[in-house]
Amino acid sequence: MRIVLLGPPGAGKGTQAGMISKKKNLPHISSGNLLREAVESGTSVGVKANGYIEKGLLVPDLIVVDIIKDRILKNDCTSGFILDGFPRTLAQARVLDEMLLGLNNKIDIVIYMTASKESIVKRLSGRRICSGCGANYHVSYVPSLRNGICDKCGGKLNQRSDDKPETILERLRVYRDQTEDLVRYYRKNGILKEISCENNIEAITKNILDVLCRSSL
Ligand code: AP5
User: Fold this and answer.
1) Could you confirm whether 171 is annotated as catalytic?
2) What CATH topology corresponds to 2-127+179-215?
3) Res. 54: pLDDT tops 90
4) Which amino acid residue places its CA nearest to atom 11 of ligand 1?
5) 123 catalytic, yes or no?
6) Average pLDDT over the chain, rounded to whole?
7) Is the pLDDT of residue 180 over 80?
8) Ligand 1 atom closest to Cα of 122?
9) Beta-carbon contacts of residue 42 (< 8 Å; ≥ 6 apart)
């Protein structure tokens, strides 16, 4: 089963990808996490990518596509995966389709996650990430038991550098300009299913699982 989670920053793609990954036993592939890992390791790709991420801009297609291709070719992806944050442009979607076609595969479903600008800004400005294990929290909606400390590994919780208010607005602008074309592309292909993500996390997971079940996935 090959699933794409598409939607604006803060719609909850990473959160839901984590939940569905456990339920369906599929690897969660986040282009943002892969890029941030490259940044942290100080690779040449990471150094190039960081300049774009910090400004809230998209990293050039060539860089992201290579990272995702390498990841999809790993053994744990043979029976499927959940893509979170990729593709982000029409060019990326076309490369992905071509690559999967070459492997006699295809994307089965695209879950289009929508949320209001107000919810998005609240979610992103309150998000905290564990510096140790990468667990995702929110100061109000998903708080840790001890302020600023991860429940799972005791690591320090940090704010992502691109979750500053001005960068959030830039990311939303970039999403509108560059990513919304994808909605039309996948709708035309007949595999887009839209889900409102204004609800709580558990209710959204249930909706996504229901949609997958109705699509016999
Ligand atoms: P990326 O890491 O992909 O960020 P994004 O798409 O902007 O999405 P986010 O991770 O910010 O949000 P999300 O939808 O996953 O929400 P989450 O579940 O965390 O990309 C970062 C950057 O990398 C890009 O700007 C770009 O520079 C680069 N990049 C990445 N992919 C690229 C690509 N393909 N091409 C080019 N460049 C690329 O939830 C957010 C918060 O809300 C959390 O705190 C969570 O706990 C909380 N929350 C989630 N759901 C709910 C809910 N239902 N109710 C209340 N709170 C909730």
Assistant:
1) yes
2) Rossmann fold (3.40.50)
3) yes
4) 9
5) no
6) 95
7) no
8) 42
9) none
